[in-house]
Every structure is written in structure tokens, then in C-alpha cells.
Amino acid sequence: ALTKPLGIAFLCRGRYMSKDVVHDRYARLYEIPRQLAVHGHDVLAWCLDYHGRIGGEWEHEVDGAGRLRWRSRPIRPWLLPTLISYPQHLLKELRAFGPDVLIGASDIPHVAIGAWLARRISCAYIADLYDNFEGFGQARIPGFVPALRWGVRRADLVTTTSEPLRDLVLSSYPPQGEVLAMPSSVDLQVFSPLEQHAARKALHLPLGVKLIGTAGGLYRDKGVEPLYEAWARTLAKRDDIHLVLAGAIDPKCPIPSGERVHYLAELWH
Predict the structure, then answer these.
(1) Which one is predicted more confidently, 256 or 50?
(2) Helix, strand, or coil (residue 115)
(3) Contact indicator for 64, 40 with CB cutoff of 8 Å
(4) DSSP letter at 125?
(5) CA-to-CA distance for 260 and 67, rounded, in angstroms?
(6) Which of 87, 221, 246, 251 has the fewest CB atoms within 10 Å around its CB?
(7) Helical H runs in the chain?
């Protein structure tokens, strides 16, 4: 058990699933630092905004005695100089903060840079993998997969969103520390079961039929193609099933079409 609050540094990208992590207070990348602050720790998070929006600093109120601060840094229009200087920029700020623990999350660069920074400032390092980052488009950049594996292997703790991903990390990397499956969840004050008939009417979905589908990034590198292929086979065999999709579309992997396909676009979380 911890006997005193910790200083915790958190590194991630600024946008996740087309949402602004800080201002939309969105999902796992927001909730991990927030929950640590709720439990009494001093959390300082740095976001690198690949979309070049205005940077800044914010402090969010949390229940309890902890503290939650955010710093965002955009990288456009001067992409390359910002990327090259960012690790040294973080190193300077981390030395001033003096964290007990550093967490690298969200993608390959932050996991790898986090491991490098933790070694430089001699603090414990945690890598959070909300997905198999080797399946991301970034993994096609030469050197990125070895950098990811190097960062994960040097983590004192690795958290994953599922048991299968945990097993993959243990078999393919493996890290020096423990690997813990920590599935993502939902805010029950936002998401709760509703009456099915009313819910379908609100989303303009048909009644009296079975619905299958998915919501999220509908990208090829997220593995959505098998669903589309399965739908083509299902369509030919069943007339009581409809396909429902929501989320951003990959232009190189168009969604199926037809009267029994319902695309809800991108919904507010």
C-alpha cells in the first residue's frame, strides 16, 4: 500500500478517436490520469497534438486531495523541428517536476520516448497499451516497431486493454515487469441500459430485426475488413439481420452498402 501521494507524469497524444483528450475529457487517456489524481496523487500530463491546434496549460478540479494538470504542445506547421526537440523539451520539464512514476501511453512514440525519459530521470516506468500498436499505421515507419518493443521491454509495469493483448505482450516482447490487463470501461452516469424500442427509434433503426455491427474507427488497420466480409456472407443467407456501423470511415476501406446497412456517422460519446 502507498503511504504517501506520488508525483505522476503522463505522456500521450492530444487527440484520440477524433476527440480532444483534454477538452472533451475523453476516454482512457483522460481517465487514467484523472483517477490517479482522484486517489490523491499529483498528476501532470503532457499531450502532443499532431493536428497542430493551439497549445496551452490547464488544471482540472478533481474529487479528493490530488491534483490534475495538463500541458498541450502542437507540432504543426513546423512538424520535423518540433518532433526532434520534443524529447529534450520533456526531459527539461520532467526534471523540474521530479515524478516518482512516468506513464507512456497512446501510441508508439509516447511508449518509446517514455521509456527513454524514465531512464534519464531514474523513475519507475509504466507503458499503457490500449491496443496492439504494431497494427497502427505508425508501425510502417522504419524503426518504430523496434522502438515500441524496446520501450515495452523496459517498463516496470505494462497495462493492456484485454487478456489477449496481455498474452501477446508476454509472448512477443516480453517486458521486465508485470503485465496487467486493465480493460477500458464506461462512465455509468453517461452510458446506461435503455428500453430497446425507444433506443432504436432514437437512432432511426428498424424494429423487430436482429442488429449486428460495431462502433469506433472503421479503419482497415483496426481490423474491420473481416466484419465486412462476414456481412456479405450473412446477407446472402439471412433476411432478418441488419448491419449497424458508427464512426470515422477509412476511404480505402468503404463500408458495405444496401437497404439493410445503417451508418450512424460519428456520434458524440
Answers:
(1) 256
(2) helix
(3) yes
(4) E
(5) 49
(6) 251
(7) 27-38, 79-97, 108-121, 144-153, 163-172, 196-202, 225-237
Rg for the chain (alpha carbons), in Å? 21
Which residues are within 8 A (CB) of 27 and not within 5 positions of it... i.e. 6 or more apart? 16, 17, 19, 21, 184, 269
Q: How confident is the model at residue 259 (pLDDT cuts 50, 70, 90)?
A: very high
pLDDT at 187: 78
Angle among Cα 54, 57, 58 to the nearest 5 degrees reads 115
pTM equals: 0.83
Taking CA atoms, 103 is separated from 44, 85, 108, in Å, by 10, 20, 13
Q: Are 119 and 139 in contact (CB under 8 A)?
A: no
Residue among 74, 145, 66 nearest 108 (CA) = 145
Residue 54 pLDDT exceeds 80? no
Does 17 have pLDDT greater than 80?
no
Averaged confidence pLDDT in the chain: 92
In angstroms, what CA-CA distances link 41 with 60, 67, 99, 125, 168?
Answer: 13, 6, 11, 16, 31
Cell 476527440 found at: 19
Cα–Cα distance measured from residue 175 to residue 193, given in angstroms and rounded to the nearest whole number: 39
Angstrom distance (rounded) from CA 33 to CA 40: 11
Q: Which residue has the cell 472533451?
A: 24
* Sheet strands side by side (includes 210-215): 210-215, 241-246, 261-263
Mean pLDDT of 107-134: 97
Interior angle at CA 109, CA 68 and CA 107, nearest 5: 70
